[in-house]
Amino acid sequence: VSRLSTALRSAENLDKMVSRLMDETLAILNTHEGALWLYHPAAGMLKKTIGRGKFTQDFPTVIETYEGIVGAAFTKGTPFLSTEFASDPQIVIENEGSILRGWGGVCLPIRTAQEVIGVLLIGVELPRQISEKEVNLLTTLGDIAGSALHRMHLHEQTQQSLRRLSALRAIDLAITSIVDLSLSLNILVEHARTQLNVDAVSVLTLNVHSQTLEYCAGRGFSTTFASQTHLRVGEGYAGLSAL
Fold this sequence. Notes:
Elements: H1 2-9, H2 14-29, E1 33-40, E2 45-52, E3 62-64, H3 68-76, E4 80-82, E5 103-111, E6 116-125, H4 132-177, H5 181-196, E7 201-207, E8 212-219, E9 230-232, H6 236-242
Antiparallel strand pairs: 1-2, 1-6, 2-3, 4-5, 5-6, 7-8, 8-9
């Protein structure tokens, strides 16, 4: 418990925290097989955030909250033990035959004080089985991890909001103080690319005489194709958006 708490406190971001949680938990349980799904409210689904070992890679990346042993652990908020996952009737039917035989373990809800935010799966190879004592330890670790992950998530949301407010302020200043349209748009596309974490952004402007959209500014494109864009209004996604 002390090792895990120290590891989580020293993590700089959510990705590193998840990685350290997995590494420490597997070391404590003396296994190399584990995976963590976190709940995404917008999608209403559990998404695999990290996985270790060859066994857990056979479990789906995205899981409905009502599916199988992972969904059951999330929905009911209680640990689910399985002697062998491949023959367990609680496993989703769609994955029958893809899960390695000879592996059992436990699915454990990761919770905060208010709600379940994810599921941790630990796998062990038969004849070994997870004991009740190990489940109790995992439950304690899960509660610690849940609180830490929740705090880090809130912290990252706050930081993201501050970065976006700063970007909006920079764009606003560019619009109001710079008379060069090209320079203003270049500031816009750079902030859009950074804040949305996308690969490329372009701005097309409408030529009112020809009723075509023409490239005006862009960032991140690996070829000159985007800069040669000429779309009629109603043509392609950009043309439909303009229409």
